[in-house]
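User: I'm new to structure prediction. If I give you an amino acid sequence, what do you actually give back? Let's try with this one:
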Amino acid sequence: MGPTAAGKTATVMALAEKFAVDVVSVDSALVYRGMDIGTAKPSLDEQARVPHRLIDILEPHEVYSAGAFCRDAAEAITEICAAGRLPILAGGTMLYFQALQQGLAQLPSADPELRAEIDARAAQSGWPAVHAELAQLDPVSAERIRPNDAQRIQRAVEVCLLSGEQLSVLQEQTNPALRADYLNIGLIPSDRSALHRRIEQRFAAMLAAGFVAEVERIAALPGVSAASPALRAVGYRQVLQYLNGELTLDEAVARAVIATRQLAKRQMTWLRSWPDLHVIDGLNGDSAECVERLVGKWLSAEH
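Assistant: Good question. You get back a string of structure tokens that encode the predicted 3D arrangement of the chain. For your 303 residues, that looks like this:
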């Protein structure tokens, strides 16, 4: 696991040279077909060399969740182990890692009418005002959620009102989705500025590879709108604003790079408190070899 642009795919490909592995993608964007360039999805050649699960399993108008991931990942891991191979979970969606290993709260299903009411209040007073309401209902969740994070504020308020319980309390009443022996390895760059340069370079390469055309193609698909989870992904959201005439291309690029940096910062914040994490500097030239040694020692100890 690790922040965006930390070198996870390259490390996985190096591991596949040493061990019989299948990859289980832990990424909320790689599940979507057609979202290839902007997600830095493993190439067709890489997928041909190493089996990958949970990539290209949904259309961009469909919704995926941590609960669905836990179900699909547990099934994939069980199949991979039964085949005598090693499952490598690789990605940057930290909520999915947490849900699989530490558990996912049993929360009430979405209520469209209640969501519409919450949205109406936000339209009238603004999401910071709804966030203040959440602070009264569930102070712990409000502390974790930014005042303008509409999606998470809406869900937290909804859960409180539907269940009569605080979301933060329900989230503590969890069990792991899959009990297994995990070796948690974090590719965490030691130099934040170097990671930022990687992010900028990678986004420039995405543009050169046709990212704008990819977003335009996805936005034109039946059932897809600006509110679709696929087009809310970092990078896609900003390019869509450019295509809609809301931003210039330079503005969209600048905002996308900033949003990607912020995403990387959030990912590293998750990792700093991760239990039993083996930290490897993803910027070091020997990071793949370090991971290989860790995995080799772990397998020897297990068997």
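You can read the tokens as a compact description of the fold. Here is one thing that stands out. The first helix runs from residue 8 to 16.
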